[in-house]
């Protein structure tokens, strides 16, 4: 496994930010709709985005030990 490039780190950080926003939007939608089926669907979508976020975080943690300790 090779260390992540700065560009890859930026992409992952942006993706995590997007997933976090989607989690919050789906949770807000789930709590505001009257239709229970739509609320359930929104919560499922929030859970899926949480899985994506966790996957990205796990990827960063796996590569953390490869990162240089001093800036280049």
Shape: elongated
Count the helices. How many? 2
Q: What characterizes the major β-sheet?
A: none
Distance between the termini: 19 Å
**SSE class:** mainly alpha
Count of extended strands: 0
Beta-strand residue percentage: under 5%
The whole-number mean of residue pLDDT values reads 91
Helix content: over 70%
- The radius of gyration is 16 Å
In the residues, how many domains can be counted? 1
- Low-pLDDT regions: none
Give a quick precis of the structure.
With 72 residues, the chain is mostly helical. The protein contains two helices and no strands.
Features:
72 residues; mainly alpha; 2 helices; elongated; Ferritin-like_SF; Spore coat protein
Strand and helix layout:
Layout: H1 6-32, H2 36-64
Helix pairs in contact: 1-2
Could you characterize the architecture of this molecule?
The chain is mainly alpha-helical. The protein has one domain. Helices cover 78% and strands 0% of the residues. It is built from 2 helices and no strands. Helix 1 runs antiparallel to helix 2. The chain is elongated, with a radius of gyration of 16 Å. 6% of the residues are buried.
């Amino acid at each position: 496994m090779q260390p992540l490039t700065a560009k890859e780190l930026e992409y992952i950080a942006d993706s995590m930010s997007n997933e976090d926003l989607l989690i919050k939007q789906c949770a807000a939608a789930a709590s505001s709709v009257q239709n229970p089926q739509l609320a359930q669907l929104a919560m499922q979508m929030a859970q899926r985005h949480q899985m994506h976020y966790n996957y990205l975080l796990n990827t960063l943690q796996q590569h953390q030990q490869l990162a240089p300790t001093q800036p280049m």
